[in-house]
Design goal:
The chain is α+β, with helices and mostly antiparallel strands and about 400 residues long. The chain has two domains: about 90 residues, Immunoglobulin-like (Sandwich); about 300 residues, Endonuclease/exonuclease/phosphatase (Deoxyribonuclease I, Chain A, 4-Layer Sandwich), CATH 3.60.10.10. Helix content is about 15%, strand content about 30%. It contains six helices and 22 strands. Strands 3, 4, 5, 6, 13, 14 and 15 form a seven-stranded mixed β-sheet that branches. A six-stranded mixed β-sheet has the order 7-8-9-10-12-11. The two termini are about 25 Å apart.
């Protein structure tokens, strides 16, 4: 059956020439949104560090994902959207119903594709982002960032280590299949106790396509009291367990975001900002106790430490990427609209958020207009004559100057 992938595009008016800084956070948000006023607590964390890419684990529902997306939109003048919510596909009927996803800043990124990688324990979620480069209409090219979000099997023991290894193998095989020299982030709650575990070693295998590295390069027995770099530990934020989550105090490094070596190369297109990778809130002064017992010297404020304590038993991992790519930026309100289904077959529904009249255009990857018509409000568009491929939808308002993104 013929399917057409259509990508929502944005209308722009001017450009910005400052270097892009992309802030990234990976966060196990603990059975979100279960509990009382969880979003209020999480919003305090996100108000202190507002990421452009938020990699989430332990989401219980699409409603929770929507709450987090709305919170980022409340906190920022930019527009945030999430990946598509898909319930766990691995091991139907199992107890592992928690899911992963991302929320991203559409001023910087668009979403080219997304999919689920099946394993014997739970899904690995994959998202292919592209940078909204000002020159895309002319260069017919863009920079892609491949984001993998996972939650490896928890707990110690041979069987659990084997389950983590099996999940790591599935993710590593998918990364091997990407084009060489890709920009890759592979992160989440890895539940690793030490760097000798097979899952960790497999993910860092050298001599393969798109080799991954641990950006802080601090191997060892992270679970041991003798491990020296206690500021990199991420779990647990609580000495004594609350109504949900684990206790025990800060004494494990469960949360990671590995990066492809291409991000370490200092490329102008996209690269890791050295020294920015941190376990947010942990400066190494609260080992085996509550996170709010960490000193605030060279750390987050006390109010944020307490929000981290109440929100989850994990700390978020944060870092930055930088790019010299020039983005297009709209100085006026964006024309906001949705398109569905995506992929589409013979008909596409286009739903602007206002009833203003627009010219609707569908463009191919070369920028050539394949279809155009005037629309007002939700409109069903016949796309049966279009060939299989990737297309871009553009709404043109009476007062809009246009620059469109193409893959």
């Amino acid at each position: 059956m013929k399917q057409l992938l259509l990508v929502l595009t944005i209308v722009f008016s001017t450009s910005t020439y400052a270097q892009i800084s992309v802030d990234v956070m990976s966060y196990n948000v603990l059975n979100f949104p279960d509990g009382v006023n969880r979003i209020d607590t999480l919003k305090k964390v996100l108000s202190y560090y507002t990421p452009d890419i938020l990699m989430l684990q332990e989401l219980k529902s699409s409603a929770g994902l929507n709450q987090i997306t709305s919170a980022l939109n409340d906190l920022s003048n930019d527009q945030y959207v999430s990946g598509t919510w898909v319930a766990q596909q691995s091991v139907p009927g199992s107890a592992y119903k928690l899911q992963q996803n991302i929320v991203y800043n559409t001023t910087i990124f668009g979403l080219a594709s997304e999919r689920v990688i099946l394993t014997g324990t739970r899904d690995v979620n994959y998202f292919k982002l592209y940078i909204r480069d000002e020159n895309l209409p002319f260069a017919n090219d863009t920079v892609f960032l491949h984001v993998y979000v996972t939650h490896l099997k928890s707990s110690q023991g041979v069987d659990n280590e084997a389950a983590r290894y099996e999940m790591a193998q599935a993710m590593r095989a998918d990364i091997n299949a990407l084009p060489p020299y890709s920009y890759v982030l592979s992160g989440g709650d890895f539940n690793l106790y030490n760097s000798s575990e097979a899952a960790y070693q497999h993910l860092l295998t050298t001599g393969v396509t798109n080799t991954l590295v641990d950006p802080i390069n601090m191997p060892g027995d992270w679970h041991s009291s003798l491990f020296p770099n206690k500021e990199i530990l991420t779990q647990s934020t609580r000495l004594n367990a609350l109504s949900d989550g684990a206790g025990g105090g800060i004494d494990d490094r469960f949360d990671f975001v590995l990066q492809s070596i291409e991000l370490q190369a200092g490329n102008n297109e996209l690269s890791y900002a050295n020294g920015t990778y941190k376990a947010m809130g942990n400066n190494g002064t609260c080992y085996n106790t509550d996170i709010f017992n960490c000193s605030t010297f060279n750390n987050v404020p006390d109010s944020i430490l307490r929000a981290l304590y109440y929100n989850s038993d994990h700390l978020p991992v944060v870092f930055s990427l930088v790019s010299d790519i020039i983005l297009s930026v709209d100085e006026r309100p964006l024309i906001q609209f949705s398109i569905y289904p995506n992929p589409a077959v013979n008909q596409l529904t286009i739903a602007p958020k206002t009833n203003e009249r627009f010219e609707m255009r569908i463009l191919d990857v070369t920028g050539k207009i394949q279809l155009s018509q005037s629309i007002s409000g939700k409109t069903h568009v016949d796309i049966s004559r279009l060939e299989l491929g990737i297309y871009f939808v553009q709404l043109v308002g009476a007062n809009s100057a246009i620059k469109f993104v193409k893959e």
